[in-house]
Amino acid sequence: MSTRFRVAFAVTAVVGAFGAWWALRPSWQVPLPTMANRSEVRMQDFRDALYFPLREFLAGGNPYDPAAMFAHWPVRQIFNFYQPYHLALHLPFALPGYRVGAVAFAVVSLLLLVVLAGMAASRLRSRVPLVLGTAVLATLLVLSQVGKAQLYLGQVNPLVVVGAAGALLARSSHPRLAAVALALAWLKPQFGLPLTILLFARGSRSTALAGTAVAAIASLPVVVLLVLRGGGVGPFLDAAAANLTYATGTDYGAVDSPTGQRVDLAAVLYRLTDWLAPAAEPVALAGVLAVSVLLVRRLDRLGDADATAVADLLTCLAVVVAVVHQPGDVLLAVPAATLAAVVWWRRRRERGWPLAGLAVAALAVPFAHLHVVDSAVRALFSARAAVTLDGVAVVAAWLVLVVFAARHTRAALAARSEALSAAGRPEWTAGRAG
């Protein structure tokens, strides 16, 4: 590493260390949870989706039962349908006292953000030293709104997105590792389901099936234990039904919530139009996946590294846009977006490629949506505009990339057909080759 790179690394490390310390502070500053302060936002996801659900599980109860959770523990949100293996995987963080568990979880989450940055930097190692690239990207993450929110709220997203991004990165070179990574992405089914479908469609069938099987097998013992404890399958299903009913009526989870921060297509369309189409969520899921599957397959068939980079980013955006997701879930796209940005910059003067750059820029909006930006949007427009901004940007990024992918594949196939025709091959052979 040259002197210039050493200086850049040292400066980045100092800034990153300060950003990390600042982002970690809520984990030791938040007051211990009580029934009186359950509205506390700091570390609320660690409290509501990890620590106390695991405490309920250890006490012999069913954390998926909203009534039990609200009666026994100081939580504000229900324990959503995380994969049951979550209750075993994160058990170490619920065994000590709340403060120790919160700080430990925040530190591990920070390290996972660094791992995600390393994944992104690995895509650029031919241009930037891996250590420097990781330091720069990790620093940008902990200073961004999306990165800070993971640690401020105590979200489990860092592990999920490392799994999802890892499955996408390793699917060709290390399919077994990719399957394990996909199983981690299944911790949140809204990641696992669309990603599995897209990986299967892109030819990584063994990874898609094996990863899903690993997640199911890991969850089975926990499910069996919950069923036996609860008195049978019937009570377990009743608790699951109550969980779903409650989730669809909350101000943060309902598709028709005017104050929710969801960034998926169905929710964004509602907040823009105040109109909820019949079966909006399943229709959006099916539509986004159908369009995305068609285009990523076309991009992959071009056999071009740049087209594959775009396909990876389109895969990530489709996962987020297809089904219920929050702004922090765009972390999934960090490695793919990093490479796509480099590809766009190299080809920015070529016809059509400015659209790819526009998609990457739109995807950056949630990361740049800091408190000062949010305050300005609220002052100039409204609170609803502030909570809708990220969703509009993410959906716009997906739409722009869809347009780019359609045009790029059409132009590439046309150029290939012309080249084959010029070489004297029959027309039907040229069409078959495309």
From TrEMBL:
Keywords assigned: Cell membrane, Membrane, Transferase, Transmembrane, Transmembrane helix
Compartment(s): Cell membrane
Membrane-spanning residues: 7-24, 100-121, 128-146, 177-201, 207-228, 275-295, 353-373, 385-406
GO MF annotation terms: hexosyltransferase activity
GO CC annotations, alphabetized: plasma membrane
Origin species: Actinophytocola algeriensis
InterPro entries xrefs: GT87
Domain of life (superkingdom): Bacteria
Protein name per Swiss-Prot or TrEMBL: DUF2029 domain-containing protein
Family: Belongs to the glycosyltransferase 87 family.
Pfam families according to UniProt: GT87
Record membrane topology: Multi-pass membrane protein
